[in-house]
Design a protein that fits this description.
It is built from 15 helices and 21 strands. With about 550 residues, it is of the alpha+beta class.
Amino acid sequence: MIRRIFDKIGYTLLIFGISSFIFIQSGCSLRQGETEESNMQASETTGIETTQEASETAPIKSNLIVGYSQEPVMLNPFIVGGDNEATRDIVSPILLGLMTINDNLEYIPVLIDEVPSLQNGLVKSNPFSVTYKIRETAIWSDGIPLTSADVKFTWETIMNPKNFIASREGYEDITSIQTPDEKTVVVSFAEVYPAWKDLFNHVLPMHGLEGKDFNTAMNHELIGSGPFVFKEWVAGDHISLERNPVFWGEEKPKLELIVFRFIPRIEDILTLLEIGDIDMVVLPEQEMSTIEKLESMDGISLVISNSLKWEHLGFCQLKETPLRDINVRKAICYAIDRNKIVNQLFMGKTDVSQSFYNPFQSFYDPAWQQYEFNKEIALELMTESGYGADNTIDLKFTTTVGNPLRDQIQAIIQEDLKQIGINVQIENFNSEELFTDKFPNGDFEIGELLWTGTSDPDVSYLFSSKMLPNHGGQNYYYYQNQQVTELLDSARSEIDEVKRDELYVQAQRVMADDAIILPLFNHVMLVAHNDKLGGIKVNPSEAGMFWNTREWYFSN
C-alpha cells in the first residue's frame, strides 16, 4: 500500500523506512526461495545463479545478482574513463573513503573516527586545515594496516602530472599533508575550501600501487578496504565481488557475493527480474513507462526516489529581449502549470521543484513556491509592462532535440504561455551544439536545462556574475546580480556550516524574486528489487546506490 504523508519541512513525499522516497510492494505472493544447489552453484560461463522452486527449509539466499545496463571501461575511479556511474557503483563496496554521504544527505565517517568540524577542533580556520583521525581497526583486504601514509599517497598520486586524473578540483588547493603518526592526517589548504568534505572519497593503498603506473595498475583489479573485494571480471558478461573475510568494520557484510551482470537492453533486464534470474536493477528515469509493469510483478518491490538532477527553465539576459523585463519573467513563472507537467508526464511520482536544492539539504529554501500557477497574476504582470492581446511577445524556446520527455514539456509550456500573449517558437539543437555554442554564447532566449546537484551547495559556477561562460563558468543565463554574487562569494569562504547555509538561503530568495530561472521538477530514480532483499537505503547523492552494501541481506 502507498501512504502519502508530510515530512518535517512540509515537502510531500511517500516514505519507506527512514529514507524519503516512494515504496511500492507489488502483488501479494512471495518469490520462492532458491534451493541450496541453486543458491550456491554458479553457471560455468557467467557465475550467475538460476532460480528454482525450493522447499520451506531452503537456506537464506546470500548471492545478489544486479542487472546493470552499462559495463565499465575500468575500475580506477580517479582517471579519465573511470569517472562515471558504472565504475563508481562497482567500486563503492571495495574502495572506501574517509567519509561518505548517507541516504539523508549527511556526511558520515567511514575510515575515520568522526567527521572533522570547528566544534570538535579538527577544523582550523586560520590558516585553514583539517585533521583526520583514522580508525585504529582499519586495514586493507590483504591484512595490511590502513594508515595516514595511504591518505598522503592518495593526494600525491592525484597531483602527479603523469597520471590522467579526471579532476584535481580541491586537491590542487592543498598545500601540504602532514602525518604526525600512523593514524593522524593533517591537511593544510592555501585558503578556505568549503567543499573539503568531498575530498578523499576513495583512499588508495600505497603498498599496492607505489612504483606502478597508476594509469593502468588499477584498471582491472584492485586492493580495497571495504566490505567486499574484487573477485573476477568476465568481459561482456559480469563483474563479481565477494565478501571481504578480514573486513575491519563492526558490522560485517551479510551477503557472500554481489554480481553485476551486464545487460544492455532494458527489456531483457525486466524479463530476467520477473523470472528471478536477477535480484535488483536501478532504472534511468526516462523508463517511467515501465512502472506499471514493475508494479504488477509478484515478489518485486519498486522504490521511486527523487534524485539531485533538476530540470529548469533559464531566461537568458545577454541580448535585448522582453526577458530583460522582470514582469515578463515573473509572468512566465506564474503562467506555467508545473503541477500539470509532473502529473501528466511523471504519473505524480515526483514533485514540483521549488529550488535547485533538494528539500532534505540543510541549505534548501522553497523560494520558488511563490510561483504557484496563476493565470490572472500572469496577465496582470504582462499588462503592467504594456503587453496584451494587441501587443503579444514572440520568444524562442530551446532545448535538446530528440528528447520525447522534453518535447512534451515544451508543448505544455507553449500552450500555457499562449494564454497570456506569449508566442513560443520551438528551436531545438543537438547536445553538442547546445553546450559548445548556443548556451555558452547566450544564443537562446528561454532554455530548458538539466543540472546535477551535489552534496556541497556551491552554485557560483552557475549564477555568479564572475562565472560567465567567457570567464570559465556556466552562467549561461548571463545573470548579473551583485547581491547574489556577494552572497555566493561569502558562502565559499565560510566554514561555519550554519552561517554558510543561511547565505545560500538568502541567495535562493533573491534569485527567486529575480525570476531568472524556474525550477520544474527533480528527476527520479527507479530501483526495483527482490522483495526479500533488505537493508537498501536509496541514496540520491554522488555516493550512489551501493554506498551501504554491507547492510544488505536476504530474508526468508
